[in-house]
Amino acid sequence: MLILGIVAVVVVFWLISAYNGLIALRNQTANALKQIDVQLKRRHDLIPNLISSVQAAMDFEKDTLQAVISARNSAIQASAGFDPQHVKQVAAAETQLTGALGRFMAVVEAYPDLKATSNMKSLQEELASTENKVGFARQLYNDTATQYNTKQQQFPTNLVAGMANATPAELWEIEDAAERAVPKVEFRRGA
C-alpha cells in the first residue's frame, strides 16, 4: 500500500511538472513572438521618417516610395493581433516590406547628394540596426517555438499536452525565393 502511495505521489508530481513545463514554454514562445512584434513596430515607425526625409529629393521616384508605404501598411495590418497561429501571414507581409525597402535603398544609392546627408545616414543606420534586431528576435522565436513543439511531441510529455492546451507554434520561415538567394559577390582587380 505504501509503495502504491509513493508511486501515485511521484506520478502526480511528474504530471504537475510536465504541465507547468509546457505552460512555461508556451509563454516563452508568446514572449519571443512579442519581441518580434516590438522590433517590427520600431521598423514600421521608422519608415515614415525615412520616406519624409527623401520625398522631396526623390519626387519622380513616386512608385518606389508608394511601394514602401503600401508594403508598410500591409505589414501593420497583418501584425494586428499577432499570435503564434498567424506567423505565416505576418512573415509574408514582412517579406514584402523587406523587398520594398531593399528596392528603396537601392534607389537612394543612386542619389549621392541625398545619401550624403547626415539625416539620411542616421536613418539608414537606424534601419540597419532595426533589421538586425528583427533578425535576432526571429531567431529567438524560432528557437523557443522549436523547443516548445519538441516538448509537446516527446513521450511521455505528449500525454499531458492535451491537458495544457498545447498546440504547435508556427515557425517564422522565409518563403520568398529572392530573400533566400545567395548574394553574388564579385572581386575585380584594379587596373
TrEMBL record:
Localisation per UniProt entry: Membrane
SUPFAM superfamilies (UniProt xref): LemA-like (SSF140478)
Bilayer disposition of the protein: Single-pass membrane protein
UniProt keyword annotations, A-Z: Coiled coil, Membrane, Transmembrane, Transmembrane helix
Superkingdom classification of source: Bacteria
Coiled coil, from the record: 113-140
Cellular component aspect of the GO annotation: membrane
Family: Belongs to the LemA family.
Protein name, per record: LemA family protein
Provenance organism: Pseudogemmatithrix spongiicola
